[in-house]
Amino acid sequence: MPVARTTPRFRTRVVRAGVYYGIVVLVIGLAAGSRPNNLLVWIFSALIAAFLASGIVSGFSLLRVRATRIEPGRGRVGEPLLVRYEVVNTARLLPVYDLHVEETQPKPGAGGSALEKVGGAWLLHVGPRERFHGEAVYRPLRRGAARLGEFTVSTTFPFGLMRKCLHFSQPAEVLVHPEIRALRADVLAQIASGGMGGQRLSGQPGGSDDFFGVREYRPGDSIRSIAWKRLAGTGRLATIERSRAVPPRLRVLLDLRAETAALRVAEGEDARALEERAIVLAASFVALADRLGYEYALSVAGVDVPPVALRRGHFHREKIMSLLASVDLDRARTAGNGLSASDERATIVVVHPDRADTEVAPEAAWHFVARQLDGLVERAAGGEVAP
User: Fold this and answer.
1) Which tens digit of pLDDT belongs to each residue from 124-182?
2) Domain limits at 155?
3) Residues 11, 161, 163, CA angle at the centre, nearest 5°?
């Protein structure tokens, strides 16, 4: 894990309350100077003392603070991303109060930050020689690598007149997975049942379904599996083995062979947004297959992404989502690496950005385009589209 530099940069910023406070002090100072009065002089002195205390006392204690970002493993578009910070007060006597920790990022938008701040980390009190953790919440705006640079530890204690900041430099990247939309469960049930990828019996024993064969009895075998007729005929114990059902298989093929500028889009439609929508649809198919217990895989035509074998499980799903997150749509496309000659026993679902091209997959494949995403999403009880 990258470590923040040991000597952070210290900065002081003026806040709105400090500006108003300075105007009041200036007015009272002018009044005390034009018509000297003991009460005005004492008030002016107290205001100046409070301003100095706000800047010096808390600023001095903040200089002994050190912080490190504990980088998150991954994020996902549409889900909150938690970023944790470890804050240490190295001072022997002075505590620090009201600490705010947040990332220093450019404004969201094209070429800006990929993360939008929802809530910064806040620590009420960190005593001398104490160590605490805080969590900030961000919202990923787009998939891909989100770069984290500097983060700031600041406080306005005690009077909120100025903000004292420590800037820590700790470059890092967080991989943001594509958004997942909740597709209807019957979508895969209709296209996978009865086909090459439908549920079938395995060629290996170990289940509790149809008859598979008879083998010699082994200690520990259930008494319910004993072949009593074989025992009566041969006098030797034997065990009945039964076959096990193999879950349906699904391979998702994402067709990105066409360049972004070559896509057929309607007037006012963004071609790049259509490609991102196709990636979301492919990720949603993978997530639905994982939820239903399918074996699933991913292939991407047009970009240099290695095909993934048929598996299932949490780590297999995260591997596929990471591959989809790393797809660079700005790179040159290729015309090959489709599945036109595939002999894999699996249902093939092809996702296209703009229009279906049946040449990229076998004849029995199912084709979807990115514009169908909203129509495939599961509806809530009130008829609204589920997120």
Assistant:
1) 999 999 999 999 999 999 999 988 888 999 998 888 888 899 999 999 889 999 999 99
2) 9-177
3) 25
Give, as one character, the DSSP assignment of residue 142.
Answer: S
Q: With CA atoms as reference, report the closest residue to 80 among 169, 174, 165.
A: 174
Q: What does the block give as tokens for 102?
A: 């947040």
Looking at the fold, whether 57 and 94 belong to one and the same domain comes out as: yes
User: Considering the entire predicted model, what is its pTM?
Assistant: 0.77
Half-sphere exposure of 358 (CA within 13 A, CB side): 5
The first and second tokens of residue 337, run together, are 């690496």
Q: What is the CA radius of gyration of the chain?
A: 32
In degrees and rounded to multiples of 5, residue 348 shows phi and psi of -105, 125
368: nearest Cα among 387, 348, 386: 348
Q: Tokens in use for 310? A: 């048929």
Residue with tokens 């970009």: 303
Residue 202 CA to residue 211 CA, distance in Å, equals: 12
Is the Cβ–Cβ distance between 362 and 381 less than 8 Å? Answer: no
Specify the residue for token string 């903040």.
62
Same domain, 126 and 36: yes
Structure tokens at 15: 């806040």
User: Domain holding 87: CATH number?
Assistant: 2.60.40.10
CA-closest candidate to residue 375, choices 131, 147, 178, 187: 187
Q: Are strands 121-126 and 96-104 parallel, antiparallel or unpaired?
A: antiparallel
